[in-house]
TrEMBL record:
It comes from the Bacteria. Residues 4-226 form the ABC transporter domain. This is Probable ATP-binding component of ABC transporter. Keywords: ATP-binding, Nucleotide-binding, Transport. GO terms for molecular function: ATP binding; ATP hydrolysis activity.
Amino acid sequence: ANALEISNLVKVYDNGFKALNGIDLTVPQGDFFALLGPNGAGKSTSLGIVSSLVNKTSGTVKVNGFDLDSQREQVKRSLGVVPQEFNFNAFEKVLDIVVQQAGYYGLPRKLALTRAETYLKQLDLWEKRDTAARMLSGGMKRRLMIARALVHEPKILILDEPTAGVDIEIRRSMWRFLNELNRQGTTIILTTHYLEEAETLCPNLAIIGKGNIIAQGPTKALLKDK
Ligand code: ADP
Ligand code: ADP
């Protein structure tokens, strides 16, 4: 099955604003895919729907072959989600935040601890494991959210503007991490308004503007005469 299949997806917010005008999007398994577009285009809304953070108005969404409406549990297990806003309890310690998440997925405590250690080390946060999350820098908080999203080893990782507000050095190290994760088989789908991020990381992308997919295809072909 494809990692993601969206068809005719519409979102009308409660205030009547139509943020998505019936978009279609397919991302094959193993891809490293960018949803690229300016602020307000509908990127967060699209991935928010896929991540069950936003309710859709109409249309169908399949994740890893599972239907978002009728197979929500399988969809959740297939996905790791890194939203744009920090949504952990900032007073908790780094390690506890990651281990707790593993608990939600029913992982035994010992495995939860091993996984947490693995990902916190890979994301250069292991020395901060006993630090309260609120003491971390923005870049560290972002990496904490990535570690937390990976603890159940999802097939597909979704990131909403993962490097927004992160300085260039940390951004590069996050890019290296994501590249390696993808190379080892995880499908990655991210939103970005940085052209450079999409060009550097993602072989395939879709360009979204005002709630419509304007183009989808290989990055090289789509961005060749920018
Ligand atoms: P849903 O029905 O998909 O859950 P809602 O329409 O209920 O979405 O809105 C979710 C939240 O986003 C609300 O608390 C709302 O106040 C807030 N919100 C409203 N307008 C905007 C906007 N233009 N951009 C971002 N958030 C907004
Ligand atoms: P992007 O992620 O591309 O910046 P969004 O998906 O956040 O775009 O927003 C798409 C459009 O929907 C924007 O015009 C935004 O103001 C509007 N919007 C987002 N959330 C809400 C909401 N809860 N209520 C009303 N409008 C919203």
